[in-house]
Each structure stands twice: as C-alpha cells, then as structure tokens.
Amino acid sequence: MIKRESDIQRILIIRPSSIGDIVMASPMLSALKQGYPEARISWLVDPSAIDLLRWNPLLDEVIPWDKNRWKRLWKKGRLLAFLGEVIRFSREMRARHFDLTLDAQGLLRSRILARLSHARTRVGFESKEPGRFLMTRIISRGPSNKQMGSEYAYMMRELGIPSSPFAPNLVLSDKDLMAGQQVINQTGIKKKYAVFCPFTTRPQKHWGRERWGGLAKEIHEKLDLPGVLLGGPNDRSEASAIHATAPHELIDLTGRLSLAVSAAIISKSALAIGVDTGLTHMAIAFHCPTVALFGATCPYLSSENQRALVLYNKMPCSPCKRNPTCNGEYTCMKKIGIENVLEAALRVTKNG
C-alpha cells in the first residue's frame, strides 16, 4: 500500500467519462473501502453521469466537472474566464485536502486535473499522452486478462489492495427505479421484457440496422419477451429505422429518458443485448442476463456476472479500436449472426 491507512484520509478518483468506463471503474470503491476503511472517497465526474454515482453509499462526495464549459471558454478565446474557472476549481480542490488522487483515465486533461487536486500522491495510468510529470507515480494497465475492469483491478493491486472479486458497484435511487417502472407501465408492457442497446458513436462497433429487427422478432417468438430500444438523443434517427423493421416487437424509448431512468429499466430487464456501449456494461453490472457483441473493441470477455456472455470473433486485424482497416466492412461484427445471438440469449435466460 502506498502509505499507512492513517496517512490516507481523503481519496479522489478521476474518471469523468465515459459511461462504460465509469461502470468498469466502479469496483474500485469497494476495494478502496477495504484498503482504507476510514478514508473519505470523492469521484470527479462529468455532470451527465452523476446519477450513476450519487446514490452509492461507498462514495462520500461526487464532484461535477463540466468539461464542455471549459472547452467552450477555451475555443471562444475567453482566456480570462477560462483561467478563472481553473483557479476556482484548484482552490476548491485544495480545500478538500486530498491525500491520494487516482487518475483512472490516463489523458493529459485528467493528469492536469490530478495536479489541480493538490493531493500529495497522484497515481495514474501509463499512456502516450503527455503530462507524466504531473503525477507522482505512473503505472501500467496490467496484463490483458480479458476480465471486466482488469486495468482498474490492477491499479488496486498496485496500491496493495486485494481486488477479487472485482464487481461493478452501481446504485440507483428508489425514485429512479419507480420512474423506470412507470415508463414500462406506460408502454403497456405487463410482463418481462428485453432491452436492446444497439448504439455507439463508432460505426465499427455497430451490428447492422437490419439485424436488430430480425433479432427482436426471434426473441419475441422464442422467449415471449417484447423488446425495448434504449439510447441517447443522438440515436433517435437510427432507432426509428430499427423500430420500423420490427414495429410490433419493439418499443422505442431512445432519447426520451434520463440516464438514471434508462439504467432503472435495464436493471429490471429479463434480458439485455447490446454492443460495446455503456448501457450494455450497465446491464452486466446489474447482473441482468446479458449478451454483449464485440468486434472492433474487446475490453473484456468475462465478468463477475455469471449470466452474461460476450460474443467476439477475433480477426487478424482485431482489435482495431479507432483505426479499422476493413474499408467499412466491419467483418468482425458481421460474423456474429442472429442465430448466434439468439442461442446466447437462450443460454443466459435458461434459469431465469
């Protein structure tokens, strides 16, 4: 462990985004409480993701950091206003007297935020990003063992904290759970349902518009589960196109709900199927029966959720991540057929 327990009284986690990475980093809360049971733990996060963390009893404070505001001020050349924001933030962080800051992102901006936290010890991931000098210790992301959240588990082990089991830790409010149930009631669904999470910002992670409708029909026929489409406001157009392929089997709620209410609906689902996106990772975190479709990326192949299956066809070019070389063919995702997903869905729901 970096210091004696008595020396670490205040800990800051920096993992502002994205939703999926916040989910996969959330097991650090249990580990840190085990390693530093008396410490006060704070988490710096983008305002859009606050609801994933604010109700967690292992967290003492959720600190919103509005990256977009800082970015707007910088791009508009409002340097004095930008500098004022940075100074205000720095003063607020100094007043919290952090002993240990964990940069669980490894970007230049997260390293700057770590430095602005004024923590005596600042530990962060190794990366190609500049700013190593802003940290007191840089660690690797560890061996690629294909377990969900393996890099965050490795960070805990580097701190001298046992990290097994390392399960996501998401807590929703009763209000959001009730709101999610109300939304489902309003759709007319009076039984169990399946959730579909087809949307990401990267086309190489998509499964193909036409396949989702066919899958929804199969799930409805074989499992008697109506389907619910979930996504963000930017996904509405694509969601409408998918819904049109299975209008009687799918209910489109894309872009209409808050993140917390979407999470609540996922948490109560009888089955979740999705690509490498935050909502899919949330389904695994809630221990829902889940089928995850990976291709261009493969952050994990297994998790603490024993009713989750990852479908992944490794290609010579895998994983290409942000640099596909297939000229838009995305063969890795196309090789996952409807029949493969249906078979996996039947397996994970077998004892449901």
Describe this protein's structure.
With 352 residues, the chain is an alpha/beta fold. It is built from 13 helices and twelve strands. It has helices at residues 19-25, 28-35, 67-75, 79-96, 108-116, 150-158, 174-187, 209-223, 236-245, 259-267, 278-285, 331-334, 338-348, and strands at 10-14, 40-45, 61-64, 100-103, 121-125, 137-139, 194-197, 227-229, 250-252, 271-275, 290-294, 308-312. The strands form two sheets. Strands 3-2-1-4-5-6 form a six-stranded parallel sheet, with helices on both faces. It has a six-stranded parallel sheet with strand order 9-8-7-10-11-12, sandwiched between helices. Helix 1 (19-25) runs parallel beside helix 11. The longest helix has 18 residues, at 79-96. The protein is globular.
Would you spell out the secondary-structure blueprint of this structure?
Elements: E1 10-14, H1 19-25, H2 28-35, E2 40-45, E3 61-64, H3 67-75, H4 79-96, E4 100-103, H5 108-116, E5 121-125, E6 137-139, H6 150-158, H7 174-187, E7 194-197, H8 209-223, E8 227-229, H9 236-245, E9 250-252, H10 259-267, E10 271-275, H11 278-285, E11 290-294, E12 308-312, H12 331-334, H13 338-348
Parallel strand pairs: 1-2, 1-4, 2-3, 4-5, 5-6, 7-8, 7-10, 8-9, 10-11, 11-12
Helix pairs in contact: 1-11, 7-10, 8-9, 8-13
